[in-house]
Amino acid sequence: MTRIALVTPMLPVPHDQTRGRYIHETARALSKLATVKVFFQQSRYPKLPFVAPRSFLDGQVGPDYRIDGIDVETFTYPVFPLISRAINGHVSSHLLTPRVAAFKPDVVLAYWVYPDGYAALRTARKLGVPCIVGALGSDIHVRSGINDRMTRQTIAGVDALLTVSEAMRQTAIRDFGAPADHVHTIVNGFNTSVFHPRDQQAIRQRLGIPPGEQMIIYVGRFVEAKGMRELIQAFQAMARTNSKLSLALIGDGVMKAELVALVEQAGLQGRVRIPGGQPPDQVAEWICASDVLTLPSWSEGYPNVVVEGLACGRPVVATDVGGTREILNERNGILIPPRQADVLQKALEQALSTDWDRAAIARDMQRTWDDVAQETLQVCRQVVAR
Question: Do residue 45 and residue 74 come from a single domain?
Answer without folding.
Answer: yes
